[in-house]
Amino acid sequence: MSNGQVPLHEEQWIENLAIKIFSDIEALTRDKVGISRESYGKGEALGINYLINLAEEFGFYVEKDDAANIILSLDKSVKTNYFLVGSHMDSVPQGGNFDGLAGVVAGFLLLAHLKEKQIRTSLPVKVLILRGEESAWYGKNCIGSKALFGLLTSEDLNATHRSTGDKLSKAMDASGVKLDVIKRSKPLINSKKIEVFIEIHIEQGPVLVDKDWPIAIVTGIRGNYRHHKIRCKGNAGHSGTIPRYLRKDAVFAGADLITRMDDHWNTIEQHGGDLVLTSGIFHTDADNQAMSRIPGEILFSFESRSQDISTLDALENLLRSECKTIERERGVYFEFDNVIKSDPAECNQEVVNKLLDASESLGFSRVSVASGATHDAAIFSNKGVKTGMIFVRNDKGSHNPEERMEIKDFMKSVSTLNKFINDYE
Ligand SMILES: [Zn+2]
User: Fold this and answer.
1) 18, 23, 132, 236: most buried, per Cβ within 10 A?
2) Gap from CA of 133 to ligand 1 centroid (Å)
3) Are residues 128 and 184 in the same domain?
4) Ligand 1: distance of its center to the CA of 402 in Å?
5) Ligand 1 centre from 122 Cα, in Å?
6) Which pLDDT belongs to residue 2?
7) Is the pLDDT at 3 greater than 90, yes or no?
8) Number of structural domains found in the chain
9) Do 250 and 307 sit in the same domain of this protein?
10) What's the CA-to-centroid distance between 291 and ligand 1, angstroms?
11) Residues 371 and 384 in one domain
């Protein structure tokens, strides 16, 4: 640390402030189970208003952009490039308190620290509180960050709410979004001015817990290729009368396909590739099927995720060619939907290295992981902004009220962020 001060994560008042903000916002947005902070809705607004009030108490400068995202800083006018740090305020319905909020609070604590210690960083720091990252409400993710770059389409704005059926544009309007500006698809931010964007986020997988790492630096965010509905058609028939060689059993064909894809996954992983595969929907028509009926049709989803787009492309080709083979061998055929692609995002290598340096110099492990879940940071990275992420260990996964983040682990991530920014040149 500059001028021999204790590192940020050992400053008790900062830790106390973190505990207070997390518990106040948890209390404000508590639901029957967990917390609910609806995208462009009530809980999100309650959390944001709380932080605006607190920011004013701390003497921070508060701005709201045309997508109703909030920006906090120490000085009003920033003409130079700046560090941007932040994450999202919303949550899934009845979710956990730390997904998104951790990155927002981290930015707040950083500003509080810089102000209290009167530290001048090489470039100013802005804290971004994003709205609408979770797709659970309107089926669209990263709404606030996409708006920043003029990426929202009319299809996005017309997306409907999971239970009320109201349009997203209506909720945005009610939250103070300037829809006329958003509809012009004009960026709200000059991305050239962002020196680097850093998002702190809880890990949504089990790796950090398993490895006993309090924090890790993220190397990249996996993209995904998704088939929502693939149909495998065979022939229905009597389970007792049709011999094996005459069967066209859709379930056996589907199971064969999944086994073959699992073998490919294993091979790719053994060669050091990054990949995860899931078939989260896989069923016959229960109304039609019976114990003693050979299934004539199944419907399944297929999702592949990887940091590497060439792996995703290769996997897609393997999926198609295995289906062709199984069609020949088992007398079935596969009907494909259109694949929906979301590109992987790489964290900037220089930023990753500097974050690793910062973490190591504070005495934490020099470790990195890939992000399996999508984050606002991916939007920044894919728009050419130098981007980095820090994950915080979090037990019990996320998108559920059971998620557990230890405050001591969180403080290490904030301290790493602070060190990174103070050492940045
Ligand atoms: Zn999140």
Assistant:
1) 132
2) 7
3) yes
4) 15
5) 29
6) 47
7) no
8) 2
9) yes
10) 42
11) yes
What is the Cα–Cα distance from 196 to 68, expressed in whole angstroms? 22
The reply to whether 41 and 169 lie within a common domain is: yes
Domain limits for position 174: 2-222+344-423
Average pLDDT, the chain: 95
Amino acid identity of residue 119, one-letter, is I
Ligand 1 center to 166 CA (angstroms) = 23
100 C-alpha to ligand 1 centroid (Å): 4
- Residues 324, 371, single domain; the answer is no
Angle in degrees, CA 34, 39, 45, rounded to 5: 80
* 90, 134 contact by CB (below 8 A): yes
With b for 16 or more beta-carbon neighbours within 10 A and e for fewer, the 258-279 pattern comes to: eebbeebbeebeeeebbbebeb
Q: How far is the CA of 137 from the centre of ligand 1 (A)?
A: 14
Model confidence band, residue 4 (pLDDT cutoffs 50, 70, 90): low
pLDDT at 318 over 90: yes
Q: Specify the length of the chain in residues.
A: 425
CA of 213 to the centre of ligand 1 (A): 20
Query: pLDDT per residue over 37-68, tens digit each?
Result: 999 999 999 999 999 999 999 999 999 999 99
The rounded Å distance from CA 300 to ligand 1 centre is 27
**pTM listed for this prediction:** 0.88
Q: Residue 73 pLDDT > 70, yes or no?
A: yes
What pLDDT is stored for residue 399 in this prediction? Answer: 80
CA of 201 from ligand 1 middle (Å) equals: 7
Q: How far is the CA of 227 from the centre of ligand 1 (A)?
A: 23
How many whole angstroms from 414 Cα to the centroid of ligand 1?
Answer: 17
Residue 376: name the closest of 39, 14, 19, 36 by CA: 39
- As a whole number of angstroms, the distance between CA 261 and CA 266 comes to 9
- Do 358 and 287 lie in a common domain? no
Please check whether residues 80 and 191 belong to one and the same domain. Answer: yes
The mean pLDDT of 201-213, rounded to a whole number, is 94
